[in-house]
Design brief:
CATH architecture of the domain at 3-46 and 61-75 and 223-300 and 441-484: 3-Layer(bba) Sandwich
CATH superfamily of the domain at 3-46 and 61-75 and 223-300 and 441-484: FAD/NAD(P)-binding domain
CATH topology of the domain at 3-46 and 61-75 and 223-300 and 441-484: FAD/NAD(P)-binding domain
Low-confidence stretches: 147-153
Number of strands: 20
Mean pLDDT: 93
Strand order of the largest sheet: 8-7-16-17-18-15-19
Strand content: 15-25%
Shape: globular
Structural class: alpha/beta
CATH class of the domain at 3-46 and 61-75 and 223-300 and 441-484: Alpha Beta
Distance between the termini: 15 Å
Helix content: 25-40%
Largest sheet: 7 strands, mixed
Number of helices: 16
């Protein structure tokens, strides 16, 4: 039986393990932490439970099919509910817009709360669906770095549609043509942050992202996002995947054009195939040193990072939903601070995730578990202690003003996640959440490929390689590798 060694047990590593074990390989997963899941983890304290990482779940079919290919019924392991309200949006002037998953209802809400028409919203979301249909097969399900991927009818169709995909316009330029009200534009510009990018630079093709929510649906797993990890690890173990935790990889050993083994401090794991679910920078810096490859990777702009406060709040707020956004008034300036000044804007846009709205066991009765996040730059020798302290102060002032309540006095539990901790826990270079940003019109083609040009049995998955960051794209990277391995 041929052996596969997978470095890292992030969601893409687990998915790759399931796919290859199911094909008949013997799969071993090496994880430096004491737990699986990478960024998809949880924390608890004082009766509160928090999803510590990703908080939005879309495209559940990519999880379900991992059970199905193993002959299992997904619902025996993993269940979720579709959210009726995708997000509540709050503005400084007191306006609140509730984004219903039903497009006509949401469009009507926009027409009542802004100067934009319901038809403009419907048209924009129809275009988002068009981009998805035009690019899904070519850009999400295939390697962009194999000639064979371009020798198909679907590729020809995608190329024909390129002028309609807005690659040469920024996301903001497309949205400003579609809408005239700043409130609506900010809602749709926000989707650039789903892969750590700047809507004023990222290509308009990223307007595909709204379709993932409005067209395909946003969901909340029963038990929280961490149940994605738990259920897939359970499946992997049942079909024979071996997990080795507290096992940090030091090097990938090669001979000629083959990766022959994976070395840890205490052992050497021989392999016929090696798959890296590690940040691609870390691979070329520590596991497979290559100055040439490292320079090429580091030449690309890093994505944004995150500053997260996990707050146990001693009160319930009925005006809040599972997902909430409190917008800055000057979105463009906020992104200039993120990507140019490399600091945190004084009036940041705040995201609040509250799973206890649906998962009652996530907070004591009458209380809520707040996951409070702002986008921040990745690490560039800033004074993070000072920046974090000031950001917390500004966050509390902003939320308290919008909700009309002294939020600091309601905090019963607190933990935080910083860019430095993200880097330390997940080896994400400079704490960037998604590897490289998508601020270049050719970013889809510049992102690192899923296979090695130097070693024919070495493959790469996860958020720092094609097709990108976030749960759906990380799962797609595992699916692409599955197709690449004959």
């Amino acid at each position: 039986m041929k052996k596969v060694v997978i470095i890292g047990s992030g969601i893409a590593g687990i998915a790759s393990a399931i796919r290859l074990q199911n094909k008949g390989y013997r799969v071993q997963v090496l994880e430096k932490n004491s737990y699986p899941g990478g960024k998809i983890t949880q924390l608890t304290g004082n009766g509160f439970r928090f999803d510590a990482g990703p908080s939005l779940f879309t495209m559940p079919n990519l999880v379900n099919e991992l059970f199905e290919i193993c002959g299992k019924k997904a619902s025996d392991y993993f269940n979720y509910d579709r959210l009726n309200i995708l997000c509540n949006y709050f503005y400084e002037d007191g306006t609140k817009i509730s984004a219903n998953s039903d497009i006509p209802t949401f469009a009507k809400e926009i027409s009542q709360k802004t100067s934009d028409s319901a038809e403009s919203v419907k048209t924009h979301l129809e275009k988002s669906a068009f981009i998805y249909r035009a690019t899904e097969e070519q850009f999400l399900n295939k390697s962009l770095h194999k000639i064979s991927s371009f020798l198909s009818f679907s590729t020809l169709v995608s190329i024909f549609k390129l002028p309609f995909l807005k690659i040469f316009s920024s996301m903001n330029q497309v949205n400003e043509k579609a809408f005239k009200d700043s409130k609506t534009i900010r809602i749709f510009n926000r989707y650039a942050t789903y892969n750590g990018s700047n809507p004023y630079k990222a290509p308009g093709i990223l307007n595909i992202i709204p379709h993932l929510e409005f067209g395909l649906g946003a969901y909340l797993p029963k038990g929280g996002m961490h149940e994605i990890t738990n259920s897939l690890v359970q499946l992997a173990k049942e079909i024979g995947v071996e997990f080795h935790f507290n096992t940090e990889v030091n090097a990938i050993k090669t001979i000629d054009n083959l990766a022959k083994s994976v070395q840890t401090k205490s052992d050497n794991y021989k392999a016929d195939i090696v798959i890296c679910n590690a940040d691609i920078h870390t691979v070329y810096e520590k596991l497979l040193p290559s100055v040439k490859r490292l320079k090429k990777v580091d030449a690309q702009e890093r994505s944004s990072s995150a500053l997260i406060f996990y707050w146990g709040i001693g009160k319930e707020f009925p005006e809040l939903e599972v997902h909430n956004i409190m917008f800055t008034e000057d979105y463009k300036t906020e992104f200039k601070h993120l990507f140019e000044s490399k600091d945190i804007y004084k009036d940041p846009t705040i995201y609040i995730n509250i799973t206890s709205k649906h998962l009652k066991g996530d907070a004591p009765k009458g209380k809520e578990n707040w996951f409070v996040m702002i986008n921040v730059p990745s690490i560039y020798d800033q004074d993070w202690d000072q920046m974090i302290a000031k950001a917390k102060e500004n966050i509390l002032i902003k939320i308290s003003k919008i909700l009309g309540e002294d939020i600091e006095s309601l905090i019963e539990f607190e933990e935080q996640l910083t860019p430095q901790l993200i880097q330390d826990k997940t080896n994400s270079y400079k704490g960037s959440l998604y590897g490289t940003s998508s601020n270049n019109k050719f970013s889809a083609f510049l992102r690192h490929k899923n296979f090695s040009s130097d070693y024919k049995n070495l493959f790469f998955c996860g958020g720092s390689v094609h097709p990108g960051g976030g749960i759906p794209l990380a799962l797609s990277s595992a699916k692409i590798i599955d197709k690449l391995i004959k």
